[in-house]
Specification:
heterodimer; A: Ubiquitin-like (UB roll); 5 strands; B: 145 residues; alpha+beta
Chain lengths: 82, 145
């Protein structure tokens, strides 16, 4: 099981802030492919990966990173702090 | 070093005085970010963050700054929730033996907080709401460090 979190407009497009998924996707990119297959709202949220960032267990990562041992995946747009 | 991610307003003067009183380093620099009114069109700004990662990311940035510039102390306060034009969003303070290090560390902290701390701003105006887009310039600013 893996916790998937969404923030900002990704959260709005997916329609929920977090969910727990039963996925065996080996990489972030494979997890996204699974989500996009499920429903249109995911396809809309993940239509342009260049405008998305991903964190694995709260550390910034990339889409080709393996999900082995990862408990928490978060998707969000580029950050706008400060 | 102190880090606070909070919804409550903070008192810039009181925070600065308390920070300066706790140091005998020689130089203290502070920066404060204020919500812009966008020419009077902004009715509110909503700031979302990623609890847990936010604190980890800021602490890591502070550790880097402290090691690189020999800071004797540092403070970061960043708010989230709903803010209005003119409200303070965040502040950083740095203390170092000399001003060049304190200024540089404060700029470094600001540059990294902008694009490496997981906050997202949404502007609510008369014409609706929109997420603030990250600027290429913000990402480019990291390259100078």
């Amino acid at each position: 099981m893996i916790d998937v979190l969404y923030f900002a407009w990704v959260r709005e497009r997916v329609g929920l802030p977090r969910e727990r998924l039963d996925s065996t996707a080996p990489t972030v990119r494979a997890l996204i492919a699974e989500l996009v297959m499920r429903e249109d709202r995911y396809a809309l949220a993940f239509s342009d990966l260049t405008s998305l960032r991903v964190a694995l267990d709260q550390n910034l990562s990339d889409f080709d990173a393996p999900l082995t041992g990862v408990r928490e995946v978060a998707f969000f747009p580029p950050m706008t702090g400060g | 070093m102190r880090l606070s991610v909070q919804t409550e307003a903070f008192d810039l003067g009181a925070e600065t005085n308390a920070f300066a009183a706790g140091t005998s380093a020689g130089a203290v620099v502070t920066f404060t970010g204020i919500v812009r009114d966008n020419g009077g069109t902004l009715s509110a700004m909503q700031i979302e963050h990623y609890p847990g990662m936010t604190e980890k990311a800021i602490a890591a940035i502070m550790d880097q700054a402290a090691a690189r510039w020999g800071l004797t102390d540092a403070l970061v306060i960043h708010r989230h929730g709903t803010l209005r034009a003119g409200d303070p969003i965040m502040m950083v303070a740095t203390a170092a033996p000399h001003r060049a290090a304190a200024f540089a560390a404060a700029e470094f902290l600001m540059d990294y907080l902008k694009s490496r701390a997981p906050f997202w701003k949404k502007e609510i105006g008369a014409d609706g709401a929109s997420w603030v887009a990250a600027k290429d310039a913000d990402e480019d600013a990291l390259k100078r460090w």
